[in-house]
Amino acid sequence: MKQSVHSLKLFGLYMNLLGAALIVVPNLLLSLFGIAPTSEVWVRVAGVLVFNLGIYYRFALKNPDKAFIQASIYARMFVLAAFIAFILFGFATPVFLLFGAVDAAGALWTWIALRGEEREESGLSGQGNGGQKWT
Questions:
Q1: How much is the pLDDT for 39?
Q2: Transmembrane region positions (predicted)?
């Protein structure tokens, strides 16, 4: 699980950096999204949540679990789908696609890495993956 774990470690770091930016300079990020500056605390609260998710990712990978890695793929792809829906319903501007694309690209990298690792595992052990299908 070397490459898949590496991809998630970088994603955890990305979450930490994004969360820290939302806490420290939220209006800078809001301006990138075309959202008016605010002094309300909700942006910083979201930053704390994002930062903490990064911590969870990084700690969970100290003992990597394939189920966690696979769940992260679905969760990160959902971000892109949600952002597309937000844009289509007029809730957000197309710039949201940039952040959704980052999540989706990371998910794709993790998925490709996980599939390669599974193939390598099944080739080395001769036992496959215990019947578990990775998609």
A1: 94
A2: 12-35, 41-61, 73-89
Domain ranges of the chain: 2-125
| Pairwise CA distance, residues 60 & 130, whole Å | 23
Chain centroid to Cα 116, Å, comes to 20
Contact 47, 88 (CB under 8 A): no
Report yes or no: 27 and 38 within 8 Å, Cβ to Cβ. yes
**The amino acid at 85:** A
Answer whether residue 111 shows pLDDT above 80: yes
* pLDDT confidence of residue 122: 84
Say if residue 1's pLDDT is above 80. no
Check: pTM over 0.90? Answer yes or no: no
Alpha helices in the chain (DSSP H): 2-24, 26-32, 42-60, 66-88, 96-125
